Amino acid sequence: MNENCPTFRTSLLEENVGPGHNPTDNPTMGELIAARFSRRGFLKGSLAVSAIATTVSPLALMLADDARAAEKSAFIFEEVEAGIDQHDHVAAGYDANVLLRWGDGLFPDSPEFDPLNQTPESQARQFGYNNDYVGYIPIGGSSEHGILVINHEYTNEHLMFPGIVKIVKDDKGKDKLEIVPADRKRVDIEMAAHGGTVVEIIKVDGKWQVVKDGKFNRRITANTEMQLSGPVAGNERTKTNADLSGKKVFGMINNCSGGVTPWGTYVSGEENIQGYFLGKLPEDSKEAANYKRLGIPDTSYDWGNFHDRFDLSKDQNEANRFGWVVEIDVNDPNSIPRKRTALGRFKHEGADSIVARDGRVVFYLGDDSRFEYVYKFVTAGKFNPDDRAANLDLMDDGTLYVARFDIDGAVNWLPIVFGEGPLTEANGFHSQADVLIETRRAGDLLGATKMDRPEDIGPNGVNGKVYVMLTNNSKRKTEEVDAANPRAKNAFGHIVEITEEDGNFAAVRGKWEILLKCGDPSVAEVGASFSTDTTKNGWFGMPDNCAVDADGRLWVSSDGNSPKETGRTDGLWAIDTEGPARATSKLFYRVPIGAEMCGPLMLPDMETMMVAVQHPGDGGEDWEGFGRQSYYEDLSTRWPDFKDNMPVRPSVVAITKKGGGKIAV
Ligand code: FEO
Ligand code: CA
Ligand code: CA
């Protein structure tokens, strides 16, 4: 979801981007950017390009880049033309086949998808809505047979359900969608369409298919039984009317991005949890400040009208049981997913991990709201490749760190540990559990750097770098600009590259620089910093998800490009990070009108790229090809089926080279 996305769910979107909930005046370290400019010789440093680009026209930069950009990109393919229409488009010479659509059966007994007669029971046996993260766990080491894991982030009722939308006029006389309040059945379908999917897939004659009777197949929903584990499990603040143990939770919600651990489990980040809660806390509630910091309640959904646990007036603590990273053991479809509380509670985007040199495992974590923080978690124990069972609780014990990006190009990882520094009784923390439940406040007190909406963070095991997607932040004022977030009203986002000290992902410090500032490089005021090899099709805005392939190449997908914002749909962009072609971007795949691009996932053999097309058809009023609000009865696209009796369907797409072979080489 994105602040520029023309969806009707505006309240949820507003909170997603954080309506100024970070109340601190933590230094935006680049307040001293001017001081930095005055320092002799700093232009020789690795930060020179990013620093210059805050004040110098990108066109001038592009001229300076001419020599280096003449070199070849690491990606070899014929770029797609950027644009907007009802279809998806992939680079010439590639096939993009839909593998899984919303409503597709996942089990031998799954009912056929019937959008006019959907039920909660059917939905719980079918592929869910709004696929975001896509991960792959090989079976027997294969890149042609494995388990696909997919997050179902949220639901768009106006695209899913017939007969619930009216077009009305807003204050300015503009058309707007009005949706009838949900009944119990609709709420229960929505809950069943959230969560995740675990499904066996196999490539037969070069084409991927779902194994419907796969023994690993599983749907996880907003009602699946889970356990809180780690420091917060059993805490007073997680005990509810229905669960006096403070450990037994039902469901995961708004799971955005995620990861696959080195031991082959599926991890999934709960992001915008605020939208699912309604009602008022009692006046004397101790959770008021905690919930305010996360924007709870937001009342985007009607669930609390039918399920008391989502009504704050009836249950004060349920919301403390959401906002975690969830780990799912895919080997056993009856395993109980664990909410790994040691990784903190905030609006979790993803949880990509990598094994550090000494065997500890490092998870990189973004908190996706404006002015929120970048985190990493380092396990206390070491990964043992020969003992899967011994790895299964690694995520319960370790150290969570929050990032401070310093003016001199250093990044410092500050430990979030009860009793250390300001994280004490004096500041209202009584235990590590308290610190983790209010992770954002801990980050405030530690002086972490307020970032431009941290989304996916991708560690790269080939070159030892880490890429941080910062999607945008239109609320950053000129006086709040800093070195790591160098643009005021940052409409198009940027990518920060971290090099951990001595190439050790578990290090507590490193260096950072800006890889890329996004937006149209031909408009000087935008201040974008793509290389001059980047064509008019190759630039983009709003980086969101990312993937690093087996060759260490970076792929970035976007959320928020639109006719109005950038004159193009979202897509998958190949970005050079090394050598003279650094910061060259090329468009490999683009989505239909109204969609955002999620995934992406390159399989280990580099012969398949999986991508997730989320909320296609959500919008179209700013596109001349449609020009009005899009909803179930009048859709801006009917991708991927293009049948009159089928609504638009979020889908996972498998991209392969015609005739086989590695992608983009
Ligand atoms: Fe769900 Fe941060 O995007
Ligand atoms: Ca998104
Ligand atoms: Ca995202």
UniProtKB/TrEMBL annotation:
<feature type="compositionally biased region" description="Polar residues">
    <location>
        <begin position="1"/>
        <end position="10"/>
    </location>
</feature>
<feature type="region of interest" description="Disordered">
    <location>
        <begin position="1"/>
        <end position="26"/>
    </location>
</feature>
<protein>
    <submittedName>
        <fullName>dTDP-glucose 4,6-dehydratase</fullName>
    </submittedName>
</protein>
<dbReference type="InterPro" id="IPR006311">
    <property type="entry name" value="TAT_signal"/>
</dbReference>
<dbReference type="Pfam" id="PF05787">
    <property type="entry name" value="PhoX"/>
</dbReference>
<dbReference type="InterPro" id="IPR008557">
    <property type="entry name" value="PhoX"/>
</dbReference>
